[in-house]
Design brief:
This protein is an alpha+beta fold and 137 residues long. The chain has helices at 28-43, 48-55, 131-134; strands at residues 6-12, 57-68, 77-88, 91-100, 103-116.
Length: 137
């Protein structure tokens, strides 16, 4: 795929994101990455609530691999990014990173599947969604 749609969003680390030592709890990085993917979809004009209601489709994470390099701390402002690396059939693959200034905190890959919201079985990604990238594969 020659075109890799990229998106990033800034997130502030709050008390609720940390453990007693002020370090971000490891599972919360997954939430940060989810927020970034959701904001990316919004930026593309894709409303997940409408997608589920009107087209009976939803997305779910099927695989995630995370390398934790450095911790984020209370009050840090972090940059969370997503880059679409592959779209095939019913799934998307993404490269995701989290940075604090020039320090990379997280390096991850995430695979998301498109599901029929009634049966929760995989369903091909509709041709009209992400059509500008389909031709690049």
């Amino acid at each position: 795929m020659s075109v890799q749609p990229n998106f990033s969003t800034r997130i502030r680390v709050y008390w609720e994101d940390t453990d007693a030592g002020g370090v971000v709890y490891y599972a919360n990085y997954l939430k940060f990455m989810e927020r970034c993917r959701t904001e990316w979809l919004r930026a593309l004009g894709i409303d997940q609530s409408r997608l589920r209601t009107e087209r009976k489709l939803q997305f779910a994470v099927m695989d995630v691999q995370v390398s934790y390099r450095y911790p984020a701390m209370l009050d840090d402002e972090i940059l969370v990014s997503v880059a679409l690396t592959r779209m095939r059939g019913a799934s998307f693959s993404f490269k995701q990173e989290i940075w604090r200034d020039a320090v990379q905190l997280i390096d991850a890959s995430t695979r998301v599947v498109c599901l029929d919201s009634s049966s929760l079985k995989p369903k091909a990604i509709p041709a009209d969604l992400f059509k500008e990238w389909r031709s690049e594969q």
